[in-house]
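queue> pop job 88
queue> type: inverse folding (structure -> sequence)
queue> payload:
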């Protein structure tokens, strides 16, 4: 998908769409069946089977995307539409079957004589607790230790075990004397009324539950995006957030298990909960700057992965978990139609969830920003809550609650109008904290740019004229000779370079250096549009550079672009965002990515990969092994200030005398020498460049043998937790890794 928010929205929307379709279709179907457990067992087995079908189908989608990309003249619009569409259809297969499991089991429990509200609350909470366990084990253990395929296999094995157990219970019931007649008698006798409301109000409840689902999933997308501001960018941040999100829903639903069937005014409780969801959402939004500025200094390590989402997200999701069983008793007509009622209610909620996930990711955040999006969602929650209160009987109490709610709403908006955007304020607090740690309290700083974009919040600032670039509060790069050499060094290995690609624009220093070569066509790939907008802040002639005829800046994901485009390049230079363990960065360190780059190089092509030095020995060796597995002719140069490494890979062996000849010729170019001397004099002569050589091909081969092969299936660098916890926790230092 390339853009994180698009991927999050698409996965959530397709997942919820399948749940909606499955619950609707199978909910209507199951009430007429006498064997719900047998149907359930079959679904679980098929769900396990699709664990291996889905990855294969995603591979099949690749030629379609390549065709669309090429026939459209590399127009990104068609591919941007096709990616979520294809992903949606593929994921719809297993999720439709998943959606059918809840109404099937609810129907079975009610036919066994258990009250509807209790059955629904219990199943929903247990199922969600299972999801919590799956997220925690998958995100924190198996993906990092076993890899993706083995994790899918484990999930499929669990599905198969569940299918066997369910079928075993079904057979046992059938063996009990008179079991079949008992079930049939129960089905005939189930006519107890559940909902206390008229059909008209029940229809309103259905619409209200759609809106509730819309706001819930929109909130999830927004929190997923913005919790990264102080959870750092590791995969554990997302896993921790999602674990807490689901845990709150599970516990909220479980707490209603013994209460929901005894409620005399469930619509009133539904309305109050919606008001509380809006209230806690706005409170959570304004907790961001306080959490990072005041509490953040107390939590420097991995514990923040759980603490931040627990404080900000858990209260909200606990309320959401309570709403589902309450809405079910407001809507379900009688015991005889529990499967259909649960199916329709669940599908209605998930339709709202689909719209919430898609609109939040593809429209609300890009056009309104996170803060304004939360305000809009809070308005929906308050409006919905007031409507539900008005529909409940007993108007005296409801009128008082409504008046208090309106006053509270007005107070919140007055505070918001007069206050700064809390998310941008969070970044400002981080900048001030960083300034104090680096230069003390009395240093001057200037925030030139602080804006939320589609992929992240981009901040450009300076401390004592030392300019910085942050994305989502993480230091990306700085003005230095290292980034200049990312252009000049690989060009010295190439014979007659004509095409150069720069993956990851950053401050644009590499592109600026490459632009000195007027006879080279330069393609620049950057995921975050806003960094192009602030190029002039870091370099006075930035605007002119981007307008040069030989410079072609594109907004895209570097890996996806190389995967879809058939173009060939003489040099590809890649500077992944630090730190190396940040979520998604591993996609630029895997064997498969290096193979894509190799395929896009000309016969004498050169690849240059930079990675920061604030890494462990295991990670250095593993990246070396992976790179060397694709580029047998590999040399490693250290950065002039020892901040990291350049991996230079060529498709053919480069003769040393030819390389030295290229170097001598390059340093005769005064424009290049002046460029390298802009910030310091650490690499302004051939001898200084030669001294940067750390390992030649033979040494790389020896060192790389001890590393781990990093693949798409086994993303070693992204999952670092257990390596550090096994006796090397002192090596984990997110502060030093985040700013090089």
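queue> result:
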């Amino acid at each position: 998908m390339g853009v994180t928010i698009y991927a999050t929205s698409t996965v959530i929307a397709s997942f919820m769409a399948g749940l909606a379709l499955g619950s609707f279709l199978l909910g209507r179907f199951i009430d007429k069946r006498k064997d719900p457990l047998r149907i359930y067992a079959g679904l679980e087995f098929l769900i396990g089977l699709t664990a291996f079908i889905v990855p294969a189908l995603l591979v099949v989608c690749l030629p379609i995307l390549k065709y669309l990309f090429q026939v459209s003249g590399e127009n990104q619009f068609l591919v941007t539409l096709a990616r979520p569409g294809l992903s949606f259809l593929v994921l719809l297969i297993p999720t439709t079957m998943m959606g059918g499991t809840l109404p099937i089991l609810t129907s079975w429990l009610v036919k066994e004589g258990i009250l509807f509200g209790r059955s629904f609350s219990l199943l929903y909470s247990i199922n969600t607790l299972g999801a919590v366990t799956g997220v925690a084990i998958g995100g924190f253990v198996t993906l990092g230790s076993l890899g993706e395929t083995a994790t899918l296999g484990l999930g499929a094995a669990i599905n198969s075990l569940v299918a066997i157990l369910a079928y075993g219970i079904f057979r046992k019931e059938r063996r009990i004397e008179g079991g079949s007649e008992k079930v049939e008698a129960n089905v005939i006798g189930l006519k107890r009324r559940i909902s206390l409301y008229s059909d008209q109000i029940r229809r309103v409840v259905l619409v209200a539950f759609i809106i509730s689902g819309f706001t819930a999933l929109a909130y999830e997308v927004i929190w997923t995006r913005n919790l990264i501001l102080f959870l750092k960018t590791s995969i554990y941040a997302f896993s921790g957030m999602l674990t807490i999100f689901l845990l709150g829903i599970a516990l909220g639903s479980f707490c209603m298990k013994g209460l929901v069937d005894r409620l005399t005014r469930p619509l009133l409780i539904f309305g109050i909960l919606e008001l509380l969801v809006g209230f806690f959402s706005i409170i959570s939004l304004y907790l961001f700057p306080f959490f990072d500025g005041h509490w953040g200094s107390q939590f420097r390590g991995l514990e923040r992965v759980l603490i931040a989402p627990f404080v900000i997200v858990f209260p909200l999701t606990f309320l959401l978990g309570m709403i589902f069983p309450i809405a079910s008793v407001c809507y379900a007509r009688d015991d005889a139609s529990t499967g259909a009622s649960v199916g329709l209610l669940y599908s209605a909620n998930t339709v709202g969830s689909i719209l919430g996930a898609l609109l939040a990711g593809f429209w609300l955040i890009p056009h309104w920003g996170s803060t304004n999006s939360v305000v809009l969602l809070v308005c929906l929650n308050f409006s919905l809550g007031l409507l539900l209160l008005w529909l409940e009987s007993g108007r005296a109490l409801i009128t008082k609650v409504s008046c208090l709610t309106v006053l509270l709403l007005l107070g919140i908006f007055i505070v918001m109008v007069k206050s700064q955007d809390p998310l941008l304020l969070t970044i400002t607090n981080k900048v001030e904290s960083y300034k104090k740690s680096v230069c003390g309290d009395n240093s001057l700083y200037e925030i030139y740019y602080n804006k939320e974009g589609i992929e992240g919040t981009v901040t450009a600032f300076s401390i004592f004229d030392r300019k910085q670039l942050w994305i989502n509060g993480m230091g990306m790069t700085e003005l230095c000779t290292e980034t200049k050499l990312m252009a000049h060094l690989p060009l010295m290995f190439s014979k007659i370079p004509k095409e150069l690609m720069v993956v990851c624009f950053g401050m644009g220093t590499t592109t600026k250096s490459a632009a000195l070569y007027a006879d080279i066509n330069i393609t620049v790939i950057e995921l975050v549009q806003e960094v192009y907008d602030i190029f002039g802040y870091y370099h006075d002639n930035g605007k002119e550079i981007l307008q040069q005829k030989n410079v072609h800046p594109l907004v895209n994901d570097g890996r996806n672009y190389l995967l879809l485009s058939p173009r060939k390049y003489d040099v590809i230079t890649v500077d992944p965002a630090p730190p190396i363990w940040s979520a998604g960065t591993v996609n630029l360190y895997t064997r498969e990515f290096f193979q894509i780059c190799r395929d896009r190089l000309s016969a004498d092509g050169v690849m240059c990969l930079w990675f920061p030095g604030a890494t462990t020995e295991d990670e250095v060796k593993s990246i070396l092994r992976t790179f060397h597995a694709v580029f047998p002719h590999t040399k490693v140069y250290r950065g002039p200030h020892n901040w990291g490494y350049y991996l230079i890979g060529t498709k053919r062996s480069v003769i040393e005398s030819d390389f030295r000849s290229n170097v001598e010729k390059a340093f005769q170019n005064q424009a290049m020498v002046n460029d390298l001397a802009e910030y310091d004099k650490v690499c302004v002569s051939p001898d200084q460049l030669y001294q940067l050589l750390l390992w030649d091909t033979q040494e790389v081969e020896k060192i790389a043998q001890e590393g781990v092969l990093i693949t798409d299936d086994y993303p070693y660098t992204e999952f670092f937790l257990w390596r550090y916890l096994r006796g090397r926790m002192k090596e984990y230092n997110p502060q030093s890794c985040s700013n090089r």
